[in-house]
Amino acid sequence: MAEHKQGNGSPLVASALGRETDYPQQYDPEVLYPVPRQHNRDALQVRGWPWFGFDLWYAYELSWLNERGLPQVALAALTLPADSPYLIESKSLKLYLNSFNMTRFASAEAVRERMVTDLSARAGGPVQVRMHGPEAPLLQGKERLAQATLLDTLDIATEQYELDSSLLALAAGGGQHEACLYSHLLRSNCPVTGQPDWGSVVIDYAGPALDLVSVLRYLVSFRNHTGFHEDCVERIFTDLLALGDFSRLVVSAHYLRRGGLDINPCRSLQPLEPDMGRWARQ
Predict the structure, then answer these.
(1) pLDDT tens readout for residues 109-159
(2) Phi, psi of 196 (to 5 degrees)
(3) Is 263 annotated among the ligand-binding residues?
(4) Is residue 39 predicted with pLDDT exceeding 50?
(5) Which of 83, 118, 180, 197 is catalytic?
(6) Is 67 labelled as part of a ligand binding site?
(7) What is residue 147's predicted lDDT score, i.e. its pLDDT?
(8) Is 190 a catalytic residue?
(9) Does residue 6 have a pLDDT over 70?
(10) Any residues with CB less than 8 A from the CB of 84 and at least 6 apart, and which?
(11) Least buried of 14, 82, 163, 179, by fewest C-beta within 10 Å?
């Protein structure tokens, strides 16, 4: 597959992101724009991939025509493996999904199969697609947070809004600990448009005890950081992993939707299934 990369070294120069774009009137897989993951992973300076994981996208504005011309609607859950060489740029995915709107398909399964084929080809790895009808119940999956610690209730002062991994620290007294932490205060910024991306972060770990205040300050320091959702999660994961020897570490981010899409990247030391549930504000 040809890599979308221009002479200045940026893999985004030719993308539609941040530009006025005409929406395709018929099905068109050519609008999908793959971005090499390695471009941003180089900055992490890690050997190999110290994680398993996936990027789980929810597409809320999927529609097509049946063979008699009657519009059909569905929600699609798209799962890209973290070890695929490419991620899919979000605006190109939106354009691709909208290209189904005026195209006839024999069934919802035909739409799903077409999406699997197209997205897998662009990502360079097997993409899973699940379809949910509009009457499907609200997706759940937050049971593990019942005993989790919400970091946002900590009464702290901070003035650091530029990403700074040195803010992370282990708890005084050391020792091993098992905990699930979460925060709704994550904000990063699109590296192309500069628009803010809002999200919630879950850190589920077993290993050296983390200092909770330091974790919250660290997450807040993403506030002026520019990076794709997937890159931010990989940065959090690798910065935490650098603190010590963890037997379990799962970092997931649940970003708010934009343009009918939300992105939910997850990285883990062990393989896991893409069942992340929903937040009310998503």
Answers:
(1) 999 999 999 999 999 999 999 998 876 655 555 565 678 899 999 999 999
(2) -70, 145
(3) no
(4) yes
(5) 197
(6) no
(7) 80
(8) yes
(9) no
(10) 37, 123, 124, 125, 127
(11) 14
In sequence order, the β-bridge partners of residue 207 are 177
Is residue 216 a contact partner of residue 156, using CB atoms and an 8 Å limit? yes
pLDDT at 2 over 50: no
CATH for 29-132, options being 3.40.50.2000, 3.40.718.10, 3.30.1130.10, 3.40.50.300:
3.30.1130.10
| Distance (Å) of CA 71 to CA 93, 135, 137, 259 | 20, 16, 21, 20
The structure tokens listed for 96 are: 């691709």
241 φ/ψ sector (left φ>0, alpha ψ -120 to 50, else beta): alpha
Q: Is 259 annotated as a binding residue?
A: yes
Asked if residue 112 lies in contact with residue 97, where contact means CB atoms within 8 angstroms, the answer is: no
Ligand-binding site membership of 61 (annotated): no
Fold classification of 143-268 (topology level): GTP Cyclohydrolase I, domain 2 (3.30.1130)
Q: What is the pTM of this model?
A: 0.82
* Per-residue confidence (pLDDT) for residue 197, from 0 to 100: 93
89 is in an annotated binding site: yes
**Of the residues 118, 190, 204, 232, which is catalytic?**
190
Residue 273, annotated ligand binder?
Answer: no
Q: pLDDT tens digits, residue range 52-101? A: 999 999 998 899 999 999 989 899 999 999 999 999 999 999 999 999 99
Q: Tell which residue, 156, 50, 152, 39, has the closest CA to residue 86.
A: 39
The tokens of 241 are what? 């992993």
What are 5-12's contacts with CB under 8 Å, separation 24+?
5/36, 11/35, 11/36, 11/39, 12/89, 12/191, 12/192
**180 among known catalytic residues:** no
Pairing mode, strands 149-150 and 196-208: unpaired
Domain with CATH 3.30.1130.10 in the chain: 29-132, 143-268
Torsion of CA 99, 100, 105, 108, to 10 degrees: 150
